[in-house]
Design goal:
858 residues; 6 domains; 8-stranded mixed sheet; Putative baseplate assembly protein; CHP02243
């Protein structure tokens, strides 16, 4: 027990009373008697104990220890003899102490003896709280107290007081003035022009700057307080969130040329560009370009693909209906066999110019553009519908284009087919009858298409520090050329410095737009990719851009691009451990585009000038995908929670279905477990967009996506839905003023699986029905009554086309006087079934609807 411990008196008394029951003992009090001789040679100390445990036989004198004394050493006083109590008390002992001590306080206690051996019985039963007893040899010799043992006061601190809360100019100035007044006798602030006052102001200002820099650096430690965009991006990547840097706008470009032309014609050129207005450097001009880089970055266009017109079979085919996936085309109205076969070969990518194109030239024709040239209502260019233009992706292989002959006229054309996903969204008119005058080619096709991206092309040549700049041609040409230096980086390691890679800052001033970034979806799942193409001297291929160099080894030809809050871009290279280092004296040639994201969002037919002479160039569609960089508030809000919205594994059946629904081309999906005899399989039933069976490409994409998410031990099987054909009969009463056949045509279009003449989806359109969606009789009645000319629905009968597979006949008889307020009749559909009614006489197994129309005009 510590000597300075504070003991609770009442609990101490209770503890002393309990000693006897615990076979313990303790020192209670002592009386001291000095030897009568002068000076006294010894003293008798009569010690009383709380109990008599282990007091008989007499304990050895060595277990008693006396400590204390000022003038004598601490070991000078000792117990020399142990005797029984003279009064015969069994709870007391008489101890002889020699020599007599001084006037200070002494302490009696028990101990083990010899040290390190088994304890004496008395020492073993002594309570630690009652094992110390204080006494004096001469308690009454003086009428004054002994000098107390007091520690001296600390020395006065002469250093000035420091206010650690001082963090700005005013508080620093106040601290400095207070220190001057304390340390310089008689000093007082006078004029602001005095030297001492000026120095105080300068030091306070510098302290304010340093404190601000310290606070800003400290704020970068966490996502919620960081202000630097680089810090925000690095913090976000720790939780697998990629900050969106904005992206350049991209669009499809259509061209007409007089001869086969490579864009750009010279392989040494850095870009092919188009822009709005006449001059690229005019105020407000918007530049789009294709940038030189690896792969097929140049484009080969042909005059035979400038304008493709529809072969109308002597004006018999005046329009292409919505949903069409093929058209009979010829080159600008030329119906000769040579032109038809030329078009076939061009669309099949089989001409000599296409098969023998240079490695950097893309000569393949994969898309068509359909657009209205004239207003279908007036036959003039005014009011033509530019919003109805549509890109069409050709089918693969030779089925995309076939040269054919009109057996009656002997004219040739080429039948062109495109994907079902690109079926015409509108009805396009080709032959117009305006004021008894036939106007042909109101709608045309174009196949000279290429992709361009917003941003002015720039080329920056970097050389090591200390060398003369190269390639600094200024900002006067369409392709801006700059020269700059790259610098080596070093970082401290122990007592020295080691290489830390290299960096290069892209030139930037108010007249130079920031670095443009490729189009990536926002949301943090995909890392951003800049438009930079970096060529390093001594390397055959350009280096590749990575989001970081953590997974790059010492030979990885990689670099990282980081943008700060001012949109200044820094290229960072490896140090030989993470990423390959730049060779000494290396020269870097960086090609990229610069431009603001939303500045490239322009309307259709805006890009009308090109860097290469062409007959015509235009952008058929509005440009809308340019985005600005993700703001800080969005990063701070979304990054910590983004991982909750991404599921990188499929555990439950709903997980599998949700993962399938995220694949493009899937309208709905459901999943179920199945046992294949040896292990469990997950059957993912997919409803494709547009209905029908899922294509091979969609199945392959689904299998690849789900295989990365499935549980170990689960097989994934992609299946088509179980389509349930229905047999429906409607009995209707027609209005007396409507012809029955006209009304039948309108009802069949209304209940079709396609579109109505006015563009609305039919009642049984595949995208209107999905898994387990039942058919309510009330919906059929409501859709029928919405058709002009239907006066009343008399009877509704609906059942499965194959009654044996489930579900019975549901019939609704309606009274002729009034409709009921509510109809509960419903034809149920299973959870993995989708109803279908094609109403095609050639495919009755796809469902039918029979109409019994009564009344009306006949």
């Amino acid at each position: 027990m510590a000597a300075d411990a504070v003991l609770h008196p009442e609990r101490l008394i209770a503890r002393a009373r309990a000693l006897d029951g615990k076979l313990a003992n303790g020192l209670r009090l002592a009386y001291l008697t000095l030897d009568p001789a002068d000076p006294p040679r010894f003293a008798w100390l009569d010690v009383e104990f709380f109990t008599d445990h282990q007091l008989s036989p007499l304990p050895p004198r060595e277990i008693f220890e006396v400590q204390g004394g000022v003038r004598r050493g601490r070991a000078a006083v000792a117990v020399t003899q142990v005797l029984p109590d003279p009064g015969g008390s069994l709870t007391a002992l008489r101890l002889k102490l020699e020599p007599v001590g001084d006037y200070s306080i002494y302490t009696l206690s028990t101990r083990q003896w010899p040290p390190g051996t088994a304890a004496d019985p008395l020492a073993a039963v002594m309570d630690p709280l009652f094992n110390r007893l204080a006494f004096k040899f001469r308690p009454g010799c003086f009428n004054v107290n002994c000098a107390p043992e007091a520690s001296p006061a600390p020395a006065e601190d002469t250093a000035p007081a420091i206010d650690y809360l001082a963090r700005d100019y005013d508080s620093f100035r106040h601290v400095l003035m207070a220190a001057m007044a304390q340390r310089v006798r008689g000093w007082a602030p006078t004029s602001e022009a005095d030297l001492d006052q000026v120095l105080i102001d300068l030091i306070a200002a510098r302290g304010d700057e340093l404190a601000d820099a310290h606070d800003r650096v400290l704020a970068e430690r966490a996502l919620g307080t960081a202000r630097k965009r680089v810090s925000l991006a690095r913090h976000a990547r720790l939780v697998d969130y990629h900050v969106h840097q904005g992206n350049q706008a991209t669009t499809l470009l259509a061209l007409e040329v007089a001869a086969p032309t490579e864009l750009p014609p010279n392989p040494a050129d850095d870009c092919f560009a188009v822009w709005s207005g006449k001059d690229w450097n005019a105020p407000g001009a918007v530049v789009f370009a294709t940038l030189r880089g690896p792969g097929r970055w140049r484009r080969l266009v042909f005059p035979g693909l400038n304008r493709l017109t529809l072969y109308t079979w002597d004006d018999t085919v005046s329009a292409l209906e919505r949903g069409a996936t093929s058209a009979d085309l010829c080159i600008d109205g030329d119906t000769s066999e040579a032109q038809a076969r030329l078009l076939q070969d061009l669309l099949r990518n089989a001409t000599a110019a296409q098969t023998g194109a240079p490695e950097d030239v893309d000569a393949a024709v994969e898309r068509l553009l359909i657009e209205e040239r004239l207003n279908p209502e007036t036959g003039t260019a005014n009011g033509r519908r530019t919003q109805q233009r549509q890109p069409l992706t050709l089918l693969p292989g030779e089925e995309r284009a076939t040269a054919m002959e009109d057996p009656v006229r002997g004219r040739w054309f080429c039948r062109v087919r495109w994907r079902a996903e690109d079926a015409l969204r509108e009805r396009y008119c080709f032959v117009l009858d305006c004021d008894d005058t036939l106007v042909r080619d109101a709608t045309v096709f174009c196949a000279n298409l290429m992709d361009v991206a917003h941003g002015r092309p720039r080329v920056t040549t970097f050389v090591p520090e200390g060398q003369a700049l190269e390639g600094d041609g200024g900002d006067t040409g369409l392709v801006a050329r700059h020269g700059a230096h790259w610098s080596a980086l070093r970082r401290p390691l122990g007592a020295g410095w080691v290489d830390a890679g290299a960096e290069a800052w892209l030139p930037r001033d108010p007249s130079i737009e920031p670095l443009a970034w490729h189009d990536t979806p926002p949301g943090g799942e995909e890392p951003p990719r800049s438009t930079l193409v970096v060529e390093v001297s001594g390397y055959a291929q350009p280096w590749s851009e990575h989001i970081d160099l953590i997974e790059s080894d010492g030979s990885g030809e990689h670099f990282v691009v980081e943008c700060d809050e001012a949109q200044d871009a820094r290229i960072r290279f490896g140090d030989g451990v993470n990423g390959a280092p730049l060779p000494p004296g290396a020269k870097l040639v960086c090609r990229y585009q610069s431009g603001q994201g939303e500045a490239g969002n322009v309307g259709c037919d805006t890009l009308v000038s090109a860097s290469v002479p062409v007959q015509r160039v235009w952008n058929p569609f509005d440009v809308r995908n340019g985005r600005e960089p993700e703001p800080r508030e969005s990063i701070v809000r979304r990054a910590p929670e983004a991982f909750r919205l991404r599921q990188r594994r499929a555990v439950t059946l709903d997980d599998y279905a949700a993962a399938a629904r995220r694949i493009e081309g899937v309208a709905q999906a459901r999943a179920r477990h199945a046992w294949c005899g040896s292990w469990r399989a997950v059957q993912v039933v997919v409803d494709p967009v547009g209905g029908g069976e899922p294509g091979a490409d969609l199945v392959a994409r689904l299998a690849a996506a789900l295989d990365a998410l499935r549980l170990i031990g689960d097989d994934v099987e992609i299946r088509a839905p179980a389509y349930v054909p229905l047999d429906i009969r409607l009995a209707l009463c027609a209005h007396p003023g409507y012809w029955v056949e006209d009304l039948r045509f309108a009802l069949e279009a209304e209940f079709s699986d396609g579109h109505t003449p006015d563009g609305r989806a039919g009642f049984f359109h595949p995208d209107a029905w999905s898994f387990g969606q039942p058919l309510h009789a009330s919906r059929l009645i409501g859709r029928a009554l919405a058709v002009p000319g239907v006066e009343r629905v008399l009877r509704v009968s609906m059942r499965r086309f194959n009654p044996g597979v489930g579900g019975g006949l549901v019939t609704v008889e309606l009274a002729p006087d009034e409709l009921p307020e509510q109809l509960d009749e419903v034809l149920p559909i299973g959870p993995f079934e989708i109803l279908v009614v094609a109403n095609d006489p050639d495919r009755l197994e796809r469902g039918r609807i029979a109409l019994d129309i009564r009344g009306g005009r006949r």
